[in-house]
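Sequence and structure are no longer studied apart. As an example, we show below a sequence and the tokens encoding its fold:
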Amino acid sequence: MIRAPRLARARKKVEYQSFTSEHDLDSMHRFYLPPAECRGSSLRLSDRESHHALHVLRLRRGDQLLVLDGEGLQLQCEVSHLTRDAIDLTVRRRESIAPVPYQLTLVQALPKRKLMDAIVQKATELGVFRIVPLLSERVVTHLDSKQQEDKTEHWRALAVEAIKQCGSPWLPRIEGPVTPEAFLARKETFELSLIASLQPNSRHPRELFECFAAQYGRRPQSICVWVGPEGDFTASEIAAAKSAGAVPVSLGKLVLRCETAAIYCLSVLNYELETMARPQINTGLSAWRKESDASG
């Protein structure tokens, strides 16, 4: 009769002491709450997040987790109270994480079926700043205004799940679908604007980054990349984008599916931008190559 209370007290002691030990944040379960709901020292997960925590992950009082607000704030929390359908948290630590020093905007022509779902997920994992779905001329998917609203909310929900999966504290902006003409009419300015193209005069992205660095002595801070649908953009759409400053870039010799092209573009652009921020790596590689050539 005495053992059960002793075990309960011992378990409670371990749960509360465990918070003071070292934790691998990458292994913690992640949840999302909008910024307005992350201001206090006590938080309550949304109904959807609470359901996942209670009935899928089966979290208990004293368990620790991370809450992301999508605007750079990461909260290390502890489960303080739970009911059948809600979980309350106590914030133990707040950490503001700066965004990357450049903004990537993906202007993506809507692909058929559910391929846009995968593009949104992978683009979020690759740190895209903004996604603009494009209703270009050769787009197969046609949506009325209500369907566009529903799809946009669906994509935003997918982006939330993606930041929880990859651990990014920054949620990308996902806009409603627009036509190329409507997007260009905004007259937005980017330090570097690119359009994925199969044209023979397309340039490798690295050439453009090198030209920019030579002219300005730094990497671009705002980059826009257009990716077309199955069958590519029409000649008139490419001409309009080029007139607005977009430069055709090559994705290699092979013809890529639109979802592959989007992931390829963002991966290459991230790599080039990160490489430009670490000139010592290039210097080290050059020295290594010269040494290898001399010894060979």
User: Anything to note?
Assistant: Residues 102 and 221 are 4 Å apart (CA to CA).
